[in-house]
Amino acid sequence: MTPLLTAPLSGFVFGLGLTVSQMIDPVKVTDFLDVTGFWDPSLALVMAGALAVTLVCFRLILRRPSPLAAERFDLPTRTDIDVKLIAGAALFGTGWGMTGYCPGPAVASLGLWSFDSLVVLGSILAGVGLHQLLFQSRSG
After folding, report:
1. What is the per-residue pLDDT across 32-58, written as a single tens digit (0 to 9) for each?
2. Are 38 and 31 in contact (CB under 8 A)?
3. Rounded to whole angstroms, how far apart are CA atoms 48 and 64?
4. What pTM, to 2 d.p., does this model score?
5. Where are the alpha helices (DSSP H) in the chain?
6. Residue 24, CB half-sphere, CA atoms under 13 Å: how many?
7. What Å distances lie between residue 31 and 39, 58, 70, CA to CA?
8. For residue 102, what pLDDT is reported?
9. CB atoms within 10 A of CB 30
10. How far apart (Å, rounded) are the C-alpha atoms in residues 115 and 109?
11. Is the pLDDT at 139 greater than 60, yes or no?
12. How far is CA 63 from each of CA 57, 60, 66, 67, 98, rounded to the nearest angstrom?
């Protein structure tokens, strides 16, 4: 299968999984993150299931000589933890906790005509643009 076919198919399956698990519902997500209030632990089961599948499948898939839809695996080579990584993770977590959306569920929520997800995606794009302005011009 070509990447032109596998990318949208993978995105559809991912979005379907987010919808079935209710991770596109920001209230469900913020209730999961609110451990001192009305805590909803059900998303922990979703995350545990995803982690279990990932641990097994990554080991099996990486034994192959190449991916099904590409010539080679494109895996990260950096293993260091720096200030930019920690700051980015903190910003991501703060945004997720405040809105109940991370990028995948925000895109999947567009299918529900969610204005909130448009605002979140606009903010994500603004953050990406700001990062490009601040950091990418230095690396060139």
Report:
1. 888 888 888 888 888 899 899 999 999
2. yes
3. 25
4. 0.67
5. 3-20, 26-33, 42-61, 83-99, 103-109, 115-131, 137-139
6. 21
7. 5, 30, 39
8. 82
9. 18
10. 9
11. no
12. 10, 5, 8, 10, 39
Q: Burial of 109 by CB count in 10 Å (0-12 exposed, 13-18 middle, 19+ buried)?
A: buried
Separation between Cα atoms, residue 101 and residue 117, nearest integer Å = 7
Query: Is 90 in contact with 76 (CB distance < 8 Å)?
Result: no
Radius of gyration of the chain (CA): 18
The domain segmentation of the chain, as residue ranges, is 3-139
- At how many degrees (to 10) do helices 115-131 and 83-99 cross? 170
| pLDDT given for residue 90 in this prediction | 93
Only one residue has tokens 């545990």, namely 48
Question: Look-up: residue for tokens 């920690």?
Answer: 86
Query: Rounded distance, CA 105 to CA 117, Å?
Result: 8
Query: Is the confidence at residue 140, as pLDDT, over 60?
Result: no
| Residue whose entry in the numeric block shows the structure tokens 């991501």 | 92
123: tokens are 């903010």
